[in-house]
Specification:
The protein is an alpha/beta fold. About 50% of the residues lie in helices and about 10% in strands. The strands form two sheets. Strands 1-2-11-10-8-9 form a six-stranded mixed β-sheet, sandwiched between helices. Strands 4-3-5-6-7 form a five-stranded parallel β-sheet, with helices on both faces. It is globular. The structure holds 6-O-phosphono-beta-D-fructofuranose. 6-O-phosphono-beta-D-fructofuranose binds near residues 188, 189, 196, 243 and 244.
Length: about 500
């Protein structure tokens, strides 16, 4: 479905461009290879392989202006209640910097800074305690961010993540660990999440009590009461931080334990520097705005239903999974802020993987399938492993894939022809450091917000996940044989379960 309001001009640019690919646009305007690049400190973005030209880009920027994008960011950073359906601010930026003069944002920054000091002390205490392993128990926003960063920047792994309610996950996580030398952190904004409560119980029993249990929650009383965790071992978070935006808060405790508290602060500093870029740059050079406008061009003007993130850095292998929650939980909406139906499509399906493995898996479909999937390619210029030849090979594959998708290749044999015209954005980090990773994640957060502003939707609620949770709770008595299911298919499935177990 094409967007209507405010998108007509974009549509006329698409008609004018008649499906021109980036290679034909580059042939007419070779300078776009350089001019469509933007840099912020150690992050480089090249949008030249997208299929809009300079005039269409101007129209995209005009759309951002028409949506008051600069003011939208001011409201976000200033702590206004941008999460209108829940009447809350979304002040994740205040967890990492003091960018807004607004009193509420400054207060949030001060509050977060005090907790960060407590967090630093806790990390020092745990590091000195003789504990060798930490199990971080949480799910969704209370898991994916810390898991990504810890995996990307870890020293030899000593932090283990347990999220799934499947008991096999707990069994596998705990099997190699020694309970006498392990501590656990239970992370849950609400402390009402089934998975975390059940897995928390498993950890408490496995550890032989609550002595080495820690918690992070916006509901600290509940955390303390449910697991008998002493107050000094519970770190707070707040309702003005969304779960999927919370890795910068005490939810990042597993990160600090995995990579050290100083490097955790480096992560925050990198994100904060990117925040300053987003808040203070004109729309023309604002990287998150450009990324969001590119997403809207591909989704609403060209109608592409999927978006891929391919990381050409093994350490970022978990980035696609993290972004799936950030992007799809934020932007998977069908109604606007006022509750009326959106007048076009919102988020495409986001997915991805790590190159070069993906090339030997699903890239066939990206090169020759009937659907076009715009991509973000993410690579790192400096490598930190000792295998220089492998790094050259990795980078050559990264550049080659983007080229092949864009330019294609003709052949008399239709089976061997590549249509080309498949857009991608190239993202390069100078090196993978806490600072550059913080900036990259902040870039995506701010692009998500900009997309929500362009679509007129709320990026900060997630009511869509509630129904399944309620039904699952309601079905527990039926699974225990204490009640009947009401859905006819579920009834048959339960009978099958009973007969075969
Ligand atoms: O999956 C829905 C969700 O509410 C996410 O938004 C959230 O990050 C996750 O569950 C975990 O919630 P909590 O931190 O409250 O346990």
């Amino acid at each position: 479905m094409k967007m209507k309001s405010g998108f007509d001009t974009l549509q006329s640019h698409a008609t004018r461009l008649q499906g021109a690919s980036s290679s034909s646009l580059l042939a007419k305007d070779p300078a776009r290879a350089r001019d469509f690049a933007l840099r912020q400190e150690s992050l480089y973005f090249n949008f030249a392989r997208q299929s809009y030209d300079r005039d269409a880009l101007d129209a995209l920027l005009a759309l951002a202006r028409a949506r008051d994008m600069t003011d939208a960011y001011r409201r976000l950073f200033g702590g206004e209640k941008v999460n209108v359906t829940e009447g809350r601010a979304a002040l994740h930026t205040a967890l990492r910097g003091d960018h807004s003069g607004a009193a509420v944002a400054r207060e949030a920054y001060a509050t977060a800074s005090v907790v960060r000091l407590r967090m630093g002390a806790l990390v020092a205490e745990l590091e000195a305690s003789g504990i060798t392993d930490i199990v971080s128990v949480g799910i969704g926003g209370s898991d994916l961010g810390p898991r990504l960063v810890a995996d990307a920047l870890r020293e030899p792994a000593r932090v283990h993540f347990l999220s799934n309610v499947d008991g096999a996950a707990a069994q596998r996580t705990l099997a190699p660990l020694d309970p006498a030398r392990t501590a656990a952190i239970l992370i849950s904004k609400t402390f009402g999440t089934q998975e975390t409560l059940l897995n928390g119980g498993i950890l408490r029993d496995w550890l032989g009590g609550s002595e080495r249990l820690y918690a992070v929650s916006a509901n600290p009383e509940r955390a303390a009461a449910a697991f008998d965790i002493a107050g000094e071992r519970v770190l707070p978070m707040w309702d003005w931080v969304g779960g999927r935006y919370s890795l910068w808060s005490a939810v990042g405790l597993p990160i600090a334990l995995a990579i050290g508290f100083d490097r955790f602060e480096g992560l925050l500093a990198g994100a904060s520097e990117f925040d300053a870029h987003v808040l203070n740059s004109p729309l023309e050079t604002n990287i998150s705005v450009r990324h969001a406008l590119t997403a809207v061009w591909n989704r609403n003007v060209l109608g592409h239903a999927a978006h891929g993130v391919m990381t050409y850095d093994q350490r970022l292998a978990l980035l696609p999974a993290y972004l799936q929650q950030l992007v799809m939980e934020s932007l998977g909406k069908s109604v606007k802020l006022d509750g009326s139906a959106v007048d076009g499509d919102t988020v495409p399906v986001w997915w991805g993987g790590a190159g070069t493995d993906v090339q030997h898996s699903f890239f066939q479909a990206l090169h020759q399938g009937t659907g076009i999937v715009p991509l973000d390619f993410v690579g790192t210029i400096r490598h930190d492993d000792p295998y220089a030849e492998n790094h050259l090979a990795l980078m050559s594959n990264l550049f080659a894939q983007a080229e092949a998708l864009a330019n294609g290749q003709t052949s008399e044999d239709p089976h061997r022809a590549y249509a080309g015209g498949r857009p991608s954005t190239l993202i390069l980090l100078d090196a993978l450091t806490p600072e550059s990773l913080g900036a990259l994640i902040a870039m995506y957060e701010h692009s998500v917000y900009a997309q929500s502003v362009l679509w007129g939707i709320n990026a900060f609620d997630q009511f869509g996940v509630e129904l399944g949770k309620q039904l699952a709770n309601g079905l527990l008595p039926a699974l225990r044989g204490e009640a009947e299911a009401s859905d006819p298919v579920t009834k048959v499935l339960l009978a099958e379960l009973k007969a075969r177990s």
